[in-house]
């Protein structure tokens, strides 16, 4: 998945060009993390298997993480479906006001209250746990990003996944709070917007590099790394080069492709 804006053209076909949308299935429960332009792709392919109640966890509300909400008629035009949004970077406020602004003229011709799908909005402070009615708990952590962002951790049947998109590494890396958050996880989905050489000049943009992802994995004893939120200027050839270099340092690391599926067997 790309960061900031889409990548379009045949040179981006293998890794894909859409902005973030990740599906996490924990038992029978479906979580969607972020609703970038990959969200309509998910909607077309999975609409028949999507439950009536969907939990949409938002890392933050920058346009590349919510823009797909305007385009996904397969999920948003079904009567009786409910989307429960969770947002942790607004000092406890919900995403309702921001999404209502998105769904309003002159940005968009249809208002949110005209959509058949119902939305419930929950605000929280990143760092708090989200506890759901079936007993599933999702841990959260604040991330260093302009305006703030939220990372998520899912634990189920002895397996775990961490989602850390839109994260800028600290001067003293890896950050101990993140190390604790990611401890012994099976997979870290990590912001790999830049290579080390390209990162210079982009400090403060709220993004990181694949090498910092590997450092976090080693410190947290994480088993695998999926590089994510890819630079939209990196074509397939460049990403293959990055992946080969990255795997020399950590063979279990890889670059996530669009429609990439990872299944973790219960322990």
UniProtKB/TrEMBL annotation:
- Please name the Gene3D superfamilies in this protein's record: Ribonuclease Z/Hydroxyacylglutathione hydrolase-like
| Domain of life, per lineage | Bacteria
Query: Which parts of the sequence belong to the Metallo-beta-lactamase domain?
Result: 18-202
Q: Which Pfam families match?
A: Lactamase_B_2
List the signal peptide residues. Answer: none
- SUPFAM superfamilies in UniProt: Metallo-hydrolase/oxidoreductase
CDD domains registered for this protein in UniProt: TaR3-like_MBL-fold (cd07715)
Name of the protein in question: MBL fold metallo-hydrolase
Question: What species is given as this protein's source?
Answer: Hohaiivirga grylli
């Amino acid at each position: 998945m790309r960061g900031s804006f889409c990548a379009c053209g045949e040179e981006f076909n293998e890794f894909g060009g859409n902005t973030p949308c990740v599906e996490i299935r924990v038992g029978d429960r479906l979580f969607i993390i972020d609703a970038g332009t990959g969200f309509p792709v998910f909607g077309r392919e999975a609409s028949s298997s999507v439950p009536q109640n969907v939990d949409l966890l938002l890392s933050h509300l920058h346009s590349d993480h919510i823009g797909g909400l305007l385009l996904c008629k397969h999920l948003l035009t079904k009567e009786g479906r409910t989307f429960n949004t969770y947002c942790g970077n607004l000092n406890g406020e919900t995403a309702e006001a921001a999404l209502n602004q998105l769904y309003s003229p002159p940005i968009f011709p249809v208002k949110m209250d005209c959509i058949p799908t119902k939305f419930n909005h929950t605000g929280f402070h990143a760092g708090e746990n989200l506890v759901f009615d079936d007993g599933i708990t999702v841990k959260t952590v604040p991330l260093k990003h302009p305006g703030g962002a939220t990372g998520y951790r899912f634990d189920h049947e002895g397996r775990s996944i961490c989602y850390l998109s839109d994260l800028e590494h600290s001067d003293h890396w890896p950050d101990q709070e993140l190390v604790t958050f990611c401890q012994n996880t099976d997979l870290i989905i990590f912001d790999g917007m830049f290579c080390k050489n390209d990162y210079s000049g982009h400090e403060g943009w709220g993004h990181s590099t694949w090498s910092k992802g590997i450092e976090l994995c080693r410190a947290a004893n994480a088993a695998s790394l999926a590089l994510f939120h890819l630079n939209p200027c990196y074509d397939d050839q460049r990403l293959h080069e990055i992946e080969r270099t990255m795997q020399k340092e950590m063979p279990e690391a890889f670059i996530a492709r669009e429609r990439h599926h990872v299944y973790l067997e219960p322990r």
